[in-house]
Amino acid sequence: MGAVDPLMYKFAIFILAIFIGYYVIWSVTPALHTPLMSVTNAISSVIIVGALIAIGTEFIDGQTNPSNFFIAKGLGFFAVILASINIFGGFYVTYRMLSMYKKKVK
After folding, report:
1. Which residues contact 28 (CB under 8 A, 6 or more apart)?
2. I need a surface site. Which of 1, 11, 83, 95 has the fewest CB within 10 A?
3. How far is residue 10's CA from residue 56's CA, in Å, rounded to a whole number?
4. pLDDT digits (tens, 9 = 90+) for 49-84
């Protein structure tokens, strides 16, 4: 029996993370969905850190392969843009929700 490809291990972990995330989200009571959504902003910040690492791969490993360079830079930039939209959108929604509870000035 041969060795299992490391990609299969990573793929299995990814599939397990999907199932765990699905069951965690659907088992939360409706009253706790707002704090749960606030945590997604923190998760997006982790995505940004990972994307910045992907952008800087040429500086880490010293490779000069042009195809790896452009793929890592492109995907890293795309991840930074999407995660930034998610973070700022989440903060904007939180701001609007909190403004509903402010007393109106008469």
Report:
1. 36
2. 1
3. 22
4. 777 776 776 555 555 566 666 777 777 788 788 888
More confident residue, 94 or 20: 20
- pLDDT computed for residue 16 by the predictor: 92
How do residues 54-63 score in pLDDT, each as one tens digit?
A: 677 655 555 5
pTM of the predicted model as reported, rounded to 2 decimal places: 0.52
Give me 85's structure tokens: 């939209």
SS3 of 34-99: HHHHHHHHHHHHHHHHHHHHHHCHHHHHCCCCHHHHHHHHHHHHHHHHHHHHHHHHHHHHHHHHHH
Q: For 3, which DSSP code?
A: P
